[in-house]
Every structure is written in structure tokens, then in C-alpha cells.
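Take the subject:
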Amino acid sequence: MFSTSCHYGLQAMLYIAMHSSDDSNVELKVIAEDQNIPKHFLSKILQQLVKSDLLQSMKGPTGGFRLVKHPEDVRLIEIIEAIDGLGVFNKCGIGFKQCNDEKPCPIHDEYKKVRADVENLFKSKNLQDMVDDVNLGNSIITMNRGK
């Protein structure tokens, strides 16, 4: 349903939410290595998130990225909108361009319900919810350096 860029953006935002603060940034290189995301590809994704006012980018020896808002104020749907756009929640489940309520594909009605459920999940969850789940040991975050 979502692009690889969107998946990486969600992962990077979670990582930044867990490792940055008002006076501490997270370096692109560290995110890329810990999350096993190609650095050049991740750089482009993070710049999209900066343009969408979800991240702040700083240059220099203490440079890197940090959230613009507190993690509880960043809904996951905002990240999806910044990278893939909200049109992903209207696409056909099997890829037909002409699929709609008047001319449905064979899975249209069922997939429409699934899309709505997924959209509601991303509207209701925020970054802090995910950070809390990881910190409580209920969820994982991929990190290559064994942190």
C-alpha cells in the first residue's frame, strides 16, 4: 500500500523521536546505519519531511535532524501525507486505474473497508504511541548496532 520511501520515513521518524531532544539532533549517518536504510535515499526522504515541517535539519558539528513538534503531536498520517500523499487510501487493491464505486474491481468493496481501517489506524496513532510501545518492550525497532 505504501512506497518504500514512506516505510523508511515512518521508521526514521520513529528513530528520531526516540533519539532526539530539544538540544540534541540525530545524524543522517547514524539513522541510516542503525535502520539499514541507504543514506542517499534516506537523505531525500528526510528533506521531504523537513519541507513538510515535520523535521528540522541542522548543519555543522552538532547537526542532524530533530522533530519540529513533540512526538505526541505528530500523527502517523502526517508522515504518510508528506511522502506518499493521501491518495494511497483511494487506490484500487489490484491496481486498476478506473476502479471506483460505480465501476468496482472484483475486490473493491472489501478493500475499501481495509483501506479505511488502515487510514483510521494512521490517523489515530502518533509517534509517542510508538515510542512508548518500544520502550515498554511491546514492539521492536530495527537497529543494526544492537542498541
Q: What stands out?
A: The two ends are 30 Å apart (CA to CA). The longest strand covers residues 55-58. The domain at 4-135 is CATH 1.10.10.10 (Arc Repressor Mutant, subunit A). The helical segments are 4-19, 28-35, 39-51, 76-83, 108-124, 127-135.
